[in-house]
Amino acid sequence: MNSTHHPSPPAFSPREFRDALGMFATGVTIVTTRGAGGELVGMTVNSFNSVSLDPPLVLWSLAHKASSLQAFASATHYAINVLTVEQRALAERFATRGIDRWAGVAHHPGLHDMPVIEGVAAVFECTNRSQYAEGDHTIFVGRVERCTHLRGASPLLYHGGMFYTEHALGQLADTVIGP
User: How confident is the model over 20-43, as pLDDT tens digits?
Assistant: First the structure.
């Protein structure tokens, strides 16, 4: 007997779902690559996560409506730039449509000439290993070829629809612990 399971519609609105997801704090990244003509492409992404240590794999996802989807889908490589608290303006800039996101942004060529943003907390330079279309996003899995990090950097966090730019270690250092 072959029965097809049809899930019931959710008992919550898209807004309620988004608000609940917003309770999970994430880091903020800018994923970068080069388009077919060699042009710089970059997008603010907070759906970044580790997958495996051996082999070293990471994932991130991009909405199907994103203008940069085709560039990332056809790219052989990309770089995931993890932002510091000082780079909030970059996160906002690379999330804005219709502007030159790269104007005045300090960067250098990484592996395979992928653009790496200067001063970030960490960089994961990846081979575009696999892609999975799920719902309204494509999930990208990258094999990390090289990673670097800036020791002592405070990462930019996103929670509940807001950026958090406090230096966590600075906050702890200012607090007196004990009697």
Answer: 888 888 999 999 999 999 999 999
Cβ atoms 176, 156 nearer than 8 A: no
CA distance 111 to 122: 15
The residues, ordered by sequence, that sit 6+ positions from 33 with a Cβ below 8 Å of its Cβ are: 41, 42, 71, 72, 75, 77, 78, 79, 114, 115
CATH superfamily of this structure's domain 14-173: Electron Transport, Fmn-binding Protein; Chain A (2.30.110.10)
Beta strands, E only, 6-161: 26-27, 29-34, 40-45, 49-52, 57-63, 77-82, 107-109, 115-117, 122-134, 137-149, 157-159
Residue tagged 């999970």 (tokens): 24
